[in-house]
Amino acid sequence: MTVGRPALLALLIAAACIGLLPRPAAADTAEERRFLDDVQKRAVAYFRERADPTTGLVTDRASNSGSDGYTVASTAATGYGLSSLAVGVDRKWLKRDEAAARAEKTLRFLLAMPHNHGFLYHFIDKRTGERVWQSEVSTIDTALCALGALTAGRYFGGKVRALSERFTDRMDWRWALTNGGTRPDKLALTHGWRPETGFIAADWGSFCESTVLLLPALGSKQDLPAEVWTRLERPRYRYGNHETLAGGPIFWHQMTQGYYDLRNRRDRLGYDYWAAAEQAMDIHRAFCADNAARRKTYREGYWGLNAGDASGGRYEAFGVPGPEDGTVSPTGVLAAILYRPKEALATAMRMRNELGDRAWGRYGFCNQFNLEPEWFGPDVIGIDLGMALLNIENYRSGLVWKLTAALPATVRAYRKVGLSRTSEAGIRPLWRSRSGAGAVPWSLQSPGALVYAAARRPGARSVCCATDGLSRCAGQKDLAMRHGRSRNRTGLLPGQAGRRNGPT
Predict the structure, then answer these.
(1) How far apart are CA 158 and CA 153, in angstroms?
(2) Comparing 7-11, 142-146, 285-289, 314-318, which segment has the lowest mean pLDDT?
(3) How far is CA 226 from CA 39, 268, 412, 413, in A?
(4) In DSSP terms, which residues pair with 15 in a beta bridge?
(5) In 3-state terms, what secondary structure has residue 150?
(6) Cα torsion at 106, 159, 155, 33 (round to 10°)?
(7) CATH of domain 25-262+271-421+434-482
(8) Which helix or strand (DSSP H or E) is residue 328 part of?
(9) Exposed e or buried b for every residue in 147-185, given b needs 16+ CB within 10 A?
(10) Pairing, β 235-239 against β 450-453
(11) How far is Cα 497 from Cα 346, in angstroms, rounded to an integer?
(12) Residue ranges per structural domain of the chain
């Protein structure tokens, strides 16, 4: 077989990327290793047990203590389920042939599901793949499904790889960028589309979890303009001595780097997203420590404000500097292990030891909890378990990073946005001129950066997104709706019996 020069170059670059990966840190003590094994095993069990045996679709959520009857799956959770198969086999918790067969079955069903230009509905019935809750055709949830498919394909090879490439190659990114050709000059990908109303008004135009969508889009074979990345608004957020991109839920800085290893990289604009994530973890810890007098949960040393379940059957987008009510996310703490391993491990292990079965169940930690008034979420959520599972595995072995780095699409994306490794002495600033001029004062940082400073006071509103709200990355108020989980969202379809998660 003859390999063309462009393909050969891509393979060589991918191999170099893998070879350059520093060896990830590993848990230092036997106790830590046992703890992480237990957390990961339970997450892998979730994706195995909560996948429909016929379709492979994974339920969006599950009870952490008993049966629930939930039948609503999500495309994103299914993507994490595909990645979990590689982790489970590599850890010798799953048999390779059985896991590969599960991945193949799932991908064949995904390819047969209803779609629009290759993009799937956000929430579907796990038994049939049919749309539920009038959910949207979701660009970001399909992208997460695609990343799971590609990593499984890279790990298992053969039919699984071929099917994963069929799934991703059919995704029409130009349709998503231009709203089906009606806005040909638009440079931000749409959130999605509904058959009743057409394209959603919101676009992925500001930094949040949006980068997990932009990198696979820009790495596709469709040659999207690099301006999709460079025009992304990057609101600046400062808390005390820490500076990062965007205040908000902790997962904004954890989701993308579950797949993409961005350590010691800057993009063409000079931004270091790993440094931004490290600072975001520090901000979450500092904010909770500073507000310990107001919130019992923080007073006990817990931190990690996230989008997730809340008391009263709510789904809330908690974040720094707000909204917040003392609810914290154990999976958000676990996923922080990439950036602040000592602090994340210590906090997560204290949660397990001090809170016991109130916060721990069949699939590990509950989704979220609050100590005043005392409330522990009864469910786990698939995408949050998935983020924690992948970040822990990357911390321990770098497995998912290596699989993603080996993809030709990753090579193309990094080249297009200029994400290259840089060697810098000392603490890496959030932004540094790629021309070698060094970091500049906050008030002068560019291009197009919005600079914010948060007052340490109760009730401060988040400055996570650009001021034009839904025309950019959706603000805090809209995050729960974007994720499709409002007060009446449960894992049950209308008419089904079972425990419901709050008022309908």
Answers:
(1) 8
(2) 7-11
(3) 39, 10, 11, 9
(4) none
(5) helix
(6) 40
(7) 1.50.10.140
(8) none
(9) bbbbbbbbbbeeebbebbbbbbeebbbebbbbbbeeeee
(10) parallel
(11) 40
(12) 25-262+271-421+434-482
End-to-end CA distance of the chain: 59
Over residues 193-199, mean pLDDT: 98
Q: And the tokens for 329? A: 């996310």
pLDDT of 488 above 70: no
Six-digit token string for 20: 């350059």
Nearest partner of 58 among 167, 149, 169, judged by Cα: 149
Query: For 2-95, where are the alpha helices, taking DSSP H only?
Result: 5-20, 30-49, 75-90
Q: Which of 378, 361, 252 is nearest to 309 (CA)?
A: 378
Tell me the C-alpha distance between 271 and 123, whole Å: 34
pTM for this structure? Answer: 0.87
Contact assessment for residue 143 and residue 122, using Cβ atoms and an 8 Å cutoff: no
Q: How far apart are CA 376 and CA 45, in angstroms?
A: 21
Give percent above pLDDT 70 in the chain: 81
Q: From the centroid of its chain, how far is CA 271? A: 19
Query: In this predicted model, what pLDDT tens digit does every residue of 423-448 receive, in sequence order?
Result: 999 999 999 987 654 443 333 233 33
Ranges of H-type helices in 380-475: 382-396, 399-405, 408-417
